[in-house]
Amino acid sequence: MRIVSAQEQEKWLEDGQVLEKDSRGPKVLLLEDGLILKIFHTRRHVLLNRLTPPAQVFSRNGEILANSGICVPEIVETFWLDKDKGLSACRYRPLPGESIESLFKRNSQQIEPLLPDLATFIALLHREGIYFRSLHLGNILQLPDGRFGLIDFLDLRKKRRRLTQGEIKRNFMHLSNYLDRRKLEAFPLQRLIDCYENCASQ
């Protein structure tokens, strides 16, 4: 991976629109050229980040999902922002659509008709052996054509078999915890699970 110059970084930070940040600084920016800049601030040891740069892991996971028929952003480039500190990043073309969380917050009544298709999408992930803790409403997008896609998949694991019942249960537990943290307890999670169990049994 190339190392981005300080001048290029400064221009991105000055001209880009910050979409997400935390105490360590910007995490996701919309750049002037329409691409998304994603910066991987992780708590792993610097040496681990240098051996397996999170930006490359993110890109590889995107390829895994795409090969499984899942819509994901197109990664344009991965690079170092600061190799000595193990700080990597990537640029990608944004996936058009709106997150399920955003749809729910804007009009909770429009979520109910989506639940069967959303459950089918999650069941597809599980059949493909795709498991990750970040499966939540903010990371699942409804695309303009009605399909669903994923936008954040750094912690994804691809297994050689479909997920076990225990793994499926833990995946939905992560989703439940996310709803609690985001104060989205009104989301019809049990209805989603019922739809999931119905399509999974067919």
Question: How would you describe this protein?
Answer:
The chain has 202 residues and is of the alpha+beta class. The protein has two domains: 6-93, Phosphorylase Kinase, domain 1, CATH 3.30.200.20; 98-201, Transferase(Phosphotransferase), domain 1, CATH 1.10.510.10. The protein is 39% helix and 23% strand. The chain is built from seven helices and eleven strands. It has helices at residues 6-15, 46-51, 54-67, 100-106, 115-127, 165-181, 189-200, and strands spanning 2-3, 17-22, 25-30, 36-40, 74-82, 87-93, 98-99, 130-131, 140-142, 148-150, 157-158. Strands 1-5-6-4-3-2 form a six-stranded mixed beta sheet, sandwiched between helices. Helix 5 (115-127) packs across helix 7 (189-200). It is globular. The mean pLDDT is 92.
Per CATH, what is the topology of the largest domain? Transferase(Phosphotransferase), domain 1
- Radius of gyration (CA) equals 18 Å
Tally of DSSP β-strands? 11
Principal-axis shape: globular
Instruction: Tell me what portion of residues adopts beta-strand conformation.
Output: 15-25%
- Order of SSEs: EHEEEHHEEEHHEEEEHH
Q: Reading side by side through the largest sheet, how are the strands ordered?
A: 1-5-6-4-3-2
Determine the CATH superfamily of the largest domain: Transferase(Phosphotransferase) domain 1
